[in-house]
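note to self — DONT lose this again. spent like an hour looking for the file last time. sequence + predicted structure for the chain T wanted, 114 res
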Amino acid sequence: MMEEHLSKIKISDESSKAKEKVASSENGDILFGREIKGETISIGAFGELIKNEVCILEGEIFAVDKRTTSTGKQLFIFSMTDYKDSVTIKFFAKENEKIELKEKMWIKVKGKKI
């Protein structure tokens, strides 16, 4: 599994369409933010990106962890695969944001490599 991560990824329900970054499910429902437009890259190509380069990845979630920080923010850590490679993604969400990430969910995410 690659050690690189995406930054500033956010995921939520359709009422949060003004957010910067997004994730959407396979059926096109927006889980957080707004519609993701642009070409996806393979997770294997993600390793070749330079720091802070923006990219779009698509794949199936196979592990999800959610923690609450001492400041009340939610930290989500999930791993996704395109069945050739995998990547771990971390992002923070506000305390009141309702986010449903589940294993076997197919999603598309956009963010910066850190």
